[in-house]
Amino acid sequence: MVSTPPALFKNFKNSLPTPPGYPDKRQSTRHITGQYSFAPNTPMLWLLGTLGRRGLDGTLYAETMQQPSSIMAQYLARRDFTQSGSAFSTPSSELVPGIKDAAPVMLKVALIDEEARGSALLQWWQGRGSATALQRDQTATLMIRATGSRNLIEMAHNDLDVVATQILTTTVLTLHDGKKPGPDVDLVPLRQWFSELLESTSTDPLIRVAADLVEALLTETRPEDERALHGDIHHGNVLDFGDRWAAIDPKGLVGHRVFDYVNILCNPSTDVAIENLHNRLENICELARIDRALLARWTIAWCGLSLTWMQGGEGSSGLGRTTRQVAGTLLSDL
User: Fold this and answer.
1) Could you tell me where the beta strands, DSSP code E, fall in the chain?
2) Looking at 87, 119, 144, which one is the last position of a domain?
3) Which residues, including other chains, have CB under 8 Å from residue 147's CB and lie 6 or more apart?
4) Fewer CB within 10 Å: N-end or C-end of the chain?
5) Is 232 assigned a catalytic role?
């Protein structure tokens, strides 16, 4: 269950199929920015081997750009960047792999505000647990490109889930090891991020429990608990950079530090998430020194938000099934 509804172009190659068990890409249930519709929780796992994004079933959800946009073309015209592969587009950005000063890089042009906000946080981290941003303006970011062969998704599916969980947790700890950014880095508070759950009129019992939980959690959050949050830490967003693991694609949030661990418990597939749920809880809490019940409560709240984005989707969908099983198991433990 990938956190945060990734944007999908309203008319982004309608021939691209919706992954089995996921909401139709033409639905817009979160918000609309300009010409782009946002569909909730579409699986978008970054696989650098294909320089694109694929669903859990392997379906490609990025396409090679036949011709870059005028904005991308301006950046490609610069002499200090040598393109080394095909340009491709996702619903939220355009990307081109390249070489700069003998280093592998990725040029990314944001198509939506969320991507631009995340790039600002990426630059502020300066490579502390994240991909290193070399240059950035309001539209584009040039960053070091991951070229390692290791993959946390594969590790989780091949009896190395404990190792993958430790890598993800350590990455979050590194991202949180510092002061919050100044006002020049625009971050979305968790209360705003959870607003659709808090305002939901759904009668779904899980959504109602999650709404009550998140209101209490937000109220209980102390200033010393708050960090700049990545907002989308999962097995497809922490990559092998050869000498280290680092996060990509932050959402740019601010709030209780525990929130950055919740999506580790829900990925990369239903079976793996449920099979390893209790071990992950123990390992994350021990390594990050956080209370088990607190992590469980934040995770249930996140599951409720996901269901809200899915318009109360039932367990017949892959994401609904994962969400309900994870939340149900955690609720029984509280």
Assistant:
1) 7-9, 32-33, 36-38, 45-47, 52-54, 63-64, 82-83, 88-90, 93-100, 103-110, 133-136, 140-144, 188-189, 226-229, 238-240, 245-247, 253-256
2) 144
3) 48, 104, 240, 241, 242
4) C
5) yes
Please state whether beta strands 103-110 and 52-54 pair in parallel, antiparallel, or not at all (unpaired). unpaired
Inside any domain, residue 1: no
Same domain (yes/no): 109, 173: no
Q: How many independent structural domains does the chain possess?
A: 2
Q: How far apart are CA 266 and CA 128, in angstroms?
A: 25
Backbone angles phi, psi at 74, to 5 degrees: -65, -40
- Res 62: pLDDT: 64
Task: Pick the last residue of a domain from 144, 168, 184.
Answer: 144
- Domain span at 239: 152-333
Whether 302 and 201 share a structural domain: yes
CA dist., res. 252 & res. 249, Å (int):
9
Pair 163, 306 in one domain: yes
Question: Is the pTM for the entire model greater than 0.85?
Answer: no
Q: What is the CATH number of the domain that holds 325?
A: 3.90.1200.10
CB-based contacts of 244, cutoff 8 Å, min separation 6:
none
Residue 61 DSSP SS3: coil
Residues 74-104 pLDDT 10s: 888 876 888 998 888 887 899 999 999 999 9
**Residue 22 confidence (pLDDT) above 50:** no
161, 204, 232, 260: the catalytic one is 232
